[in-house]
Each structure stands twice: as structure tokens, then as C-alpha cells.
Write a structure and sequence with these properties.
The complex is a heterodimer of chains A (153) and B (110).
Chain A (H helix, E strand, L loop, with lengths): L11 E6 L5 H11 L1 H5 L1 H23 L7 E9 L2 E7 L26 H8 L2 E4 L5 E7 L13
Antiparallel strand pairs in A: 1-2, 2-3, 3-5, 4-5
Helix pairs in contact in A: 1-3, 3-4
Chain B lengths: L1 E7 L2 E7 L7 H13 L4 E8 L5 H16 L3 E5 L3 H9 L7 E3 L2 H6 L2
Classes of the chains: A alpha+beta (153), B alpha/beta (110).
Chain lengths: 153, 110
Amino acid sequence: MTPMRPDMDSDLVLELPTDIRSIEGAVDYVMSRCQACTEHARRLNLNFRVGLTEALANAMLYGNGRDPSKHVLVEVVVRGGMLRATIRDQGVGFDPTRVPDPTLPENITRPCGRGLFLMRSLLDEVSFNDLGNEVTLVLRLDSGGAFEGGAQA
Amino acid sequence: MSFQVSKHDGVTLVEVEGQLIVGNRQELKQQVLEQLEGGDRKFVIDFAETGYIDSSGLGVLVSLSKKIREQGGELRLSSLNEDLRTLFELTKLDTLFRISDDKAQALEGF
């Protein structure tokens, strides 16, 4: 298994078991601990909440393969007007460029495959490490770089 | 998440309370499929008390819609808040479902 080594400069670090029932509570906890999330509540309640939920679900379902012995590490940093969350699983990684566009007519009725698309749509930056088992989400807090979804801060 | 199921002139109304996400999506799916197997064909799922739906929740709605259509029925949605409408528009699922402003409108037009 990949060892979990959190960045000690992080504002918030969580290590979660692979249990999809823990996702909602974990996201609620991060939102409650993030002062920026309070100040930008309406915008972040959609963009950041959904992005983090999708990243955790992907990490547990596909990264860790639902293996309860594996964990997911979440690190959240608020610096220089941006919120950055890094989510790392203990899986073998994947190639994010091979995920098809779920909005194409041939994919629209597929029941899965929208998580990464939502992350990319709702956040300013979404990047993966080389292995593909760590995703970093960035949301700028000072301006509406990401999709605002009609909600104002 | 919890939900209430009621019948209105041949339409099955499922009112969802709470978030529809990866951790609870199967509960809704199982409930609707039981009604479908019991002979119900017209469904409205109302999200007046739902803050957000993740991609797994969206996927369950797509899956249910497909299964209901295969049985000659239809699934309609109602009461999406501004954030939920945004998610449906981003994913273009607003083109797949008939979406009403509220449950009364959804039931009335079915």
C-alpha cells in the first residue's frame, strides 16, 4: 500500500476509511472547518462540495476498489485567495485522459462517468499526479473563475 | 436521506429529503424499482428538500428513467433548486428529463 504522508503545511488533514457512507459526513466536516467556505458559502456549497464529494467517491470506488483496509487522505489548504484540496487514494491510479465526455449523445444515458466531468466543470483547476491516484482541486475565492452556477458569494 | 412515497391518480410521487449521493443512492433505486415491479409506470421524484445530488445520484436517476421507459412508463422530476438545475444543465441531463417547478405542476401534467 502507498504510505500516507500528509503535507504538514496543510490547514486540514483527514484520513478516511474506504466507506462511501463516510463521504457526506467528511465533506460536511471540511466545509464546517473552512472559514473561507463560510465567507463564500453559497458559491462553495455547490462548486467545492460537489467537487470534493466526487473526488472522494472516485478514490474509494475506483482508486481503492472499495477495499476497507485502504484509506483516503484529504488535505485542504487556503492560501493566497485560493482553496486547494488534495485527495489521494492507495490504488494503482488511472489515466484521466481516457474518461469519455458524458455529455455526448452516445454517453448521455450512461449511468456513470460524470464525476470527473463535474469536477472539471465546477473547479478552476483539476490536476492529477503521474500515477493517477492523487487529484488536486483548486478553487479561486476572489473571482468567479470556475462555473458559478448562479450562486453568488 | 429519507423519502416518502405516495400515490396521486396513478402517479407515484417520491419526495426525497436530504442529499442524494453515492452513500445512499441504492435506497432510492430499490424503492422505485419495487414500485415499478408492482405495476406503477408514472413516477415523479421531488427534490424540494434536497440540497445537492452527486454524479452517482444523477446516475441512479438516469438508470431508473431507462428502466421505467423500458416498461412503457416515464420518470419526471420536480422542485430542483438553483444548484441542482446547474448540475442538470452542466451534464445536459435537463434534456433527458421533464423537469417541473414543483410537485403539483408535475402531477397535474402527467
